[in-house]
Amino acid sequence: MLTRSCAGSLPDVGEEPQTVRPSGPGRPGGALPRPPSLPPRLADPVPVLAVGTTLWLLAFVTLLVARVGFGFDRPVWLWTTLCGAVLGVIGYGIFRWQRAAARRDPRNSQRGLGL
Q: N or C of the chain: less Cβ packing under 10 Å?
């Protein structure tokens, strides 16, 4: 015969699960404190997009010079680096589009875009 003496047992069918909320000083009603916001230099994606896109473009130019000048024939690498650079430019365009939309109407946009 099973008993419900185990502390971590599952509730029976039809029982309401009990929620445990930490309480203490400064936490009225068991509300958790808000986490601190990120510093602006960590929340801004522009440097990451710029550095990543630049590295892809630099790799593309390096492989293009190696192919034309030295006969290094790895077309998959060449096209992969070009796609990386193009996708970086597209990603930056989407980011600017979202930021412009947030500036126009902040009620319907994402929060935390560093306006």
A: N
